[in-house]
Amino acid sequence: MPEPLTWEQRLILALLAVDTVLLAVLELFFLPLRIGVVPLPVTVVVGAVTTPWLVSTTAKLVRPGLSWVPLAVWVVVVFGFGLLGPGGDLVLIQDWRALVLLGASALPGALVLGGGLGRAAVGRSPGRG
User: Fold this and answer.
1) 85 phi and psi, to 5 degrees?
2) What is the pTM of this model?
3) What gap in Å lies between CA 20 and CA 70, rounded to an integer?
4) Quick check: 55 and 116 in contact, CB under 8 A?
5) From CA 36, how far away is CA 11, in angstroms rounded?
6) Residue 68 near residue 76, CB atoms below 8 Å
7) Cα 17–Cα 19–Cα 24 angle in degrees, nearest 5
8) CA neighbor of 68 nearest in space, from 79, 56, 82, 85
9) pLDDT, tens only, 25-71
10) Does residue 34 sit in helix, strand or coil?
């Protein structure tokens, strides 16, 4: 049974979750960015860097077993806010850029998450059965 989180760990986890919400909203809002007629989805790069970083930072600063929190928050915000946006508007655009954002952010985050949970399982003793 893991120890309860300290108040510092809870504060860090809450701040990382708030950062995740803000980044997910900004990634959604700037996804349709264009220069002239050329789409320029720079937020895909932002998501590809920040989502795995948030997952790994949570594993390092809080606990590896809770490193799923930023990825889950990111997915909930992107789908929730993207599909049921402000005033019922559809913020998640329906073209290739949305798929690239989802793949470039969620996939690396999930890969880092798998590594974090794997490191957490190494310290445990094997179960019965």
Assistant:
1) -60, -170
2) 0.85
3) 6
4) yes
5) 43
6) no
7) 95
8) 56
9) 999 999 999 999 998 889 999 999 999 999 999 999 999 999 999 99
10) strand
